[in-house]
Design a protein that fits this description.
- The chain folds into two domains: about 1-160, Helix Hairpins; about 190-225, no CATH class.
- About 95% of the residues lie in helices and about 0% in strands.
- The chain has helices spanning about 1-25, 25-80, 85-190, 195-200, 215-225.
Length: about 230
Amino acid sequence: MFKSLFALVRGRTNDAAERVVDDNAMTILRQQLRDSANAVATARKAVAVAMAQNEQEIGQHKKLVERISDLEKRTIIALEQGKNELARDAAETISILATECETSEQAQQQFSTEIERLKTAVRQSEARLRELQRGQRLADATDKTQRMRGMTNNSGLSALKDAENTLERLRNRQMEIDATTAAMDEISMSNDPSTMSERLAEAGCGAPQKSSADEILERLAKKVKKSA
């Protein structure tokens, strides 16, 4: 019984943790990418440091070779002058320097090998980081699209429907106002005696109150004939 309860508690804890991770996946991914970018930058710095140390080792090796060459020349002169004891001391110094030179060469080889390994690792890491960054941008765009789609499917659709209803009510109200204004104008015109006379004349009830263009032209033509 206790084992079952313990398993239940652990199961719920794991489920809750997974839900937290899923709900904050984008935030977690962004932080992981920042950590990865920092790690790649650190690796680049390590390569630069190794290359600088190798250059120093090369410079030191060059100086050792020059010192050995100089000592050998001087030792030969000492031997030629019969200064054998001095020549022996010089030979011991050359031996020490030669050992240092060999150690330097080994160090250079190790540096070269490590630098190439680090460069390869950095190149691979940079490629993986760029791929992850592209994936993160795509995932971020997809997440925003899905969130927007969710808003449209729920509250967004409701808001759009409300806006459509409001617009329809506004248009109906405007049409009602226009219709009322037109009706009021019509009532005013029907109650105006002068307007009523014009309406009757236009309907052919009695002589027209306004002269048409043809009538005016005919009247003016008659004046022209009389003058002639």
